[in-house]
Amino acid sequence: LIEKQNFSCMVLDEAQQIKNYATQITKAVKRMAEAVGSVRIALSGTPVENRLADLHSQFEFILPGYLANSRAEFDRDFSKPIAGPEAAKRDEKQHLLQRMIQPFVLRRLKSDPNVAADLPAKVEQSYDCSVAPCQGTLYQAVQEASLANVGQQLPQLDHQQRFARRGRVLAMMHALREVCNHPANLKAERWPATISQDERPERSNVEASGKCQVLKEILSGIIANGEKAIIFCQYIQTIEILEEQIRNYCNGETVKYMGSMKRDEREDVVHRFQTDPEVSVMLLSIQCGGVGITLTAATHVIHFDRCYNPAKEAQATDRAHRIGQTKTVFVHRLVTKGTFEEKLAEIMLKRQHLSEITVTAGEEWIADLDDGE
Prior knowledge:
Helix content: 40-55%
Shape: globular
Radius of gyration: 23 Å
Largest sheet: 6 strands, parallel
Number of helices: 13
Structural class: alpha/beta
CATH superfamily of the largest domain: P-loop containing nucleotide triphosphate hydrolases
Number of strands: 8
Strand order of the largest sheet: 3-8-7-4-6-5
Distance between the termini: 52 Å
Mean pLDDT: 85
């Protein structure tokens, strides 16, 4: 059908959707491109979300074979050297890649004078949250049990064993994230026998989580000033726990934006948050509400737990900090001290030297770290 229409140009919006070579959407888009003229334009706010190879896949749509003839060749020539330990080699390959893509990339930032010139400032702050006593005991028990289950060090494993190890590491990571949010997140079967049923805190117990305590302090000031906040969480269970807690200590109304809701229900929630002065807080996940909606009624964006993909986290923040916003936006990030959240935040900062050509990977790269990391 496309061939019969004789199109001369193809524009691909949200081009990061074709970052994975093997997906059906990527294959379909590239088949369509073959039937269209040579003018191809890719639009994206986050062209590289997970790994440098994301960029190669999109360039295969724009200029097939330009960066490399295959992903394996691109990984050999760019991905591995840029991520490698040799500084001279890393810088050389990074600069070469930048020079190669520069003629074909037009980048616009909100900070540019001619782009969203009237957009107000954005103020970002991180909070080091203490571990509550029960939370610390549970965290230590889960970590010890999980590490014992991870298995041998990476160099000793074959491909199948590495795959199984990745699954165990990711399971440990999610369990520890749940504990860092609130002990009530953790499923009953994962609680150690040393902690009795009577010692397990209720969902409504703010004091059982350092981050919940800090969140209460932040929200109290926001609502007292008559402002609104959106809170991003990674887990539905955490959203439900926070909803219960916030309704107990805040006068303003709290709403949820969930993927399980029907489209008209989600639209109604957004409309109420944007227009109803009684609605002070919206709870949502980055997966569901991180793109495609406008929440400029909020002057505060709270990342209760980190996404570990800075591109997606930035997109989520931009639900409030976007055209139409007239006030300064305050971004709050909560990190639990002395836990893996703190260590991973440090790793993320070390990777920021690649930010001009790539964005740090999502959570799955964590599974490939060795035991010490």
